[in-house]
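Hey, resending since the last one bounced:
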Amino acid sequence: GASVSARGFGLCRILAMAEDLEKLTVVQLKEKLKEQSLPVSGNKPDLIERLQEHLAKQEQPAADAPAGEAQAPESMGAAEEDGDQPAQADAEQEAPLAEDPPAEGEAGGAEEQPPPAEGEEEPSGEGPPDQEEEEGDERQADDYQGEDDRADEPQEGECDRGDYPEPQRDEQEGRDDTHMDYDPEEVKADYDEQDDAKDEDMKYEDKDVDFKEEEKEDAKEDQYFEEEKPSEAGRSEDPRGEVEQDAPEDPRARLAAGAVQIGAAPDATLNCAPTCGGKILMALCDGGFQHLTAATRASVGVKAGRYLFECRIVENRLMHESGKVRVKQHVCLGFSTKGSPMMLGDSAEGIGFDSEGYFVKAGEWSRNRLTSRFAHYGPVYGVLLNLDPTSPNMNTVSVFCDGERLCRPQTLPESMRGKVLYPTINYKNMTLQVNFGPSSWAKMPFMCRMLQDAAVDDVELAASSADSGSKPEVLFPIGLPDQGTFEWLDGFLKENPKYTELSNRSLLEWGVKSGLYRGRNAWPGCNDKPDMNFGVRDIDEYNLQSLIHSVAPMLPRDYIVMEVRNNLLREERAKSLANFAGGAFRRVAVVVVGEPTAAFKAKAQGQALEERRKKVGAEVRRQKEAEARARRDKKAAEEKKENGEGDAKVAEEEEEEDLEGAVLKAEEACQLTDEDKKACWFPLKDNEDLTKKELGRHFSSFTLPDTTEGFDEVRYLWQGESEAAAYLQTWVSERKLTQRVDDLQPGAHFKEQIAAWNDQLQEWRRRHGERRDLPRRRGGEKNRRLEKKDERREGEDVPENGKDEQGEGQEKAGEEAEEEELTLDAVDPMCVEDILDIGIGEPLFANFSWEDWAMLTLRFELHLLAHAFKRDVNDPDRMGIHLEHLSFYYQKYYKKSMNQKFYGVETMQELLDLLKDTVYVTKKTKVVEAQLPTEFESLGVFVMLTEEARRDRVRRVDLGDETARLKLQNPAMPQAGAPGSLLPRPALVMSGIRPATPPVPGAVRPAGAWQQPAFRPPVGAWQQPGSFRPPMAGQVRPFGNVGGWRAPTAWRG
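The C-alpha cells again:
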C-alpha cells in the first residue's frame, strides 16, 4: 500500500510538471534540456515529452521504494533496510488506492494504475482480460506508428515553422499523433532508442544543415517572436503562444451573399472545372490534362483587414500511364495580385503554402519544409491574410490545420505590399472543397472573420467578362511570319489580360509552370510550333492542343487563337471558325499586316539601337583594355619605383574611369540612320516564327480574311485593306525568289531529257575510246599506200637511179597536206557540222581529258535544271532558282550532291563563272538563268562549248596564266548509276577487291587473278601480243572493239 501511494504521488508530480512545461517557451524548454544533457531538437511537444520522460525515469526508483523514499530521496539507503515504514498521509491523499486490492501472490508483480486525470476516461479493470489486452496492444502499436510518422516529418532545425506542432492525422485509423495517450513506463525504452537514433542519424542525410545551423535557426525564430509579439496588454493568453488576437466588432457594411466566387473566367485555367456554385473545384484529368496544374483566383481581393479562407481535399486521383505512376497530386493555397500569373511560384507577386510542406514567396521556394504534408479526406486547411495596420502581424500570411497553427506568420514580399491580394489555388489531380464563409469549418484559437464576411471597404471585386452582358470574343490574329506577330500579341495581352491565349507556345509555357521537365536537348523549333520534348506523348505530339480546342468552346470566355500558319490559310481558318460556331462567340479577324504603327516601330528601333550599342561598347572596351594593358606592362616597373604601390592603384582607378567614359561616349555616339530606321520595323528575335520548310510549303497560299468566310468582323490595325493586300502580294513575290520549294518533284520532261543525254554521252565516250586506236590504224593505212605505190612502180618505167623527182615531190606535198588536215586546232568548233567527224574521221572531243568530260556533263545538267525548274514549278512569279538553293535542287533532281570544292572553287558563284557560256546569275535577284534555249536539234552544242573553253584554257596556260588551269579533284566523281554520271564509283584499293570498271558487253575479264593481294605482272608483260591490260583503279578505260580486247596503246587521261 505504501509503494502504491508513492507511485501515485510521483505521477501527480509528473502531471503538475507537465502543466508547468506547457507554459514555457521553446527557449526555456531547451535550456532545461541542456541542463539535463538531453537533445534539444524537435518542436515544442517533442521537447515537453522528452522532459516528461526524463522526469518519469527519476521518479521510477521512488515509486518502487517505500513512501519515505519518495519524500526523502537522500535517505534511500535507510529506507531500503526498513521496508515496513508507513506511508505519509498527504501522499495517500494525492494518490488514493484502487478499489480492488491485488490478489494474493500478485502483490509484488502487479502494478496499481493511478487515478485518471481530469478529462480522461478511467481505465477499465472490469472488462474481459483478452479484450483489454487487445485494446492495449492496438493502442501501443498506434503509439509506435505515430512516433515513426513524427520522426519522418521535418525537424525544428530544418524549417521555419516556429513553436508550433505538426498535426499528423489519419482519419482511417482514427488517431491524432499530436495528442496521443501513452504510458511512459511502457514505451520509455522505445523513446530512448528513437531519441538516440535521432541524435546519431539526424546528421540530416538529405538536409543541408547541421546542429549548429539548427540552433541558429531556432534562435532566429525565437528572436522573431520576441520582436514581433504584441504588447503584454494585448497578448493572447493561449498557452501555445498564439500571436493573433481576436477580431473586434466591425459595424461596417459586409459583402453581399455569394459575392466571392472562384473558378470563373478569366481567372481560371482551361482544366479548372468548378461545380456546386464554386464550392467544389475539380480538374480535367485526361488526354494530357493530368500533367498540367489547374489554377484559379477568387473574384474578391483583400486590400485591408484580416480575413481567412478554408480548403479541404475531398478526392485524390492516382493516375497511371503504362503501368507506372507518372503524375503527382498537389495543392498550393495562397494569394496573388490581379493580373499576375495564377501559378503562385511563377512571379514575384505570389505567395502560398504547398501540400508537400514547402512555402513559396515571390517566386522562390523554401529550401526545407515549413509545415507537415497536407492530409486528405478530412482536415480543413485555412490560410489567413493579415493586412490590418493595427495588428503586430501586419503584412503576414499564416496556415492552419483544423484551427491549429502550423507555422509562424510569414511576411509578404515587398512587391505585394500595398496591393489588392486575391485568394489563389493551384491543384493537380485533386478535388477540393473551398469555403469563403461567412462561417468557418474549423474552430480557430481566436476570433477571425471569413472573406465572405469581409467589410466592403476592405475588399475589391474583380470585373468579370460575364458582367458586360455581351458575347465573348474570339480573336484570330493574321500576321506574316517574322514580322512582329508574336510581339504584337504580347503587347495586346498585357493591355487586355482577360483574353486566354490558345497556342502551342502557351501550352509549352503551361507545361513548364506545371513542373514538367523539358529535356536539355530540346530543339527550339519555331514560335508557332515549338518542340515540347516533355516525354509526355499527348503533349509532345500536340494531341492535347486538339483537345484544348474542343474544350474551349464549352467555357464562355474571351479567347485569342494564335496560329501564324493556320490563320493565314483559308482552309485552316474555316476549321478554326467551325469550333466556335453556334452564335455563342463573336468571331473577329485581326489583321496586323503591313507597316506597323509608330509606337511599334519605335520599340523595334529602340531594341535594334540597344543591340548595336552593346556591340560597339564591347568592341571599344576590348580595344581600350588592350591599350591600357600594354601601357601598364610597359611602365609597371618605373611606376612602382617612382610612385609606389598607392600611386599605381590610383592610376589604375583613373584608367578604369577613363575606360567607362570612353565606352559610354561610344555608345551615345551610336545612332540609327534614316535608312536603318526604314529597314527596322520589327523587333529582332532569336527564334523564327515558322520553320523554313513550313514557310516554303505554304507561303504561296497565304491570303487575308474577309467576312464571307464567316467572321463577324475583320479589323485592320496597321494598314487598310487594300494596302495590306498589296503588301502581302509583294511579300509573297519576294519570297518566291528566295524560298525553296521542298515538295517539288522532277517532271516527265526532265526524265526524258536526262535519259536521252545519258544515251548520247555513252556513245560519245565509246567513240572517244575508239580514237585511241587511231595511231595503229594510221600505220596500217600508210603501209597499204606504200604497197599500192610499189605496184604502180612495177608497171611503169622507172629511171636508172630509181627515183622520180617529180613523183616524189608530189608525194611529199600530198603527205604534208594530209598532215595539215589532221590538225584539230585549225577547225572552228562552233562551225563543225558533225562533232563525230570534223572532216578527217576524228570527233571534236578527240582531245578531251577527264576534266573536260566532267565540265561537259555539268554544263548540260545545270542547263537542264534551270529549264526543268521553271517547267515543274509552273509559277510565273518564280523566275528561276535562287543561287542559295542551287545545290538543294541539284540534289533533288539528280539524286547526287554538288560540291563546288570538287571543282577547285570555294563558292557556288565561282563555279558558275567557269560555265558562264551556259548559265549565269542575275545581279539583282541572284537567280540562275540559262544562256541556251530549251530545245536543240543536237546536244553537240555542249561539246562545242566545252572544246572552245578547253582551247581557250590551253592558250592562257601556254601564255603563263596558271589561274586558267582547272583544279578538279581526280576523280571522286558522281555515284555509279546516277543520272548523268560520268564515272563509276572509285574502286577500293585493298587486297581481294576487284577494281571497278564500266560494264561493256562482250568484255572478257579473267577470274581469280584479281583476288591475289600483291599481284603485279612483270615489266613489259602487257606489251606482249594477245596479253590483257587491266584498267587502273579509279580510272575509266573504254574498250576499243566490242567483243574483244584491243591491242595495248598509250592511254591519255
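The longest helix spans residues 598-669.

Sorry for the duplicate.
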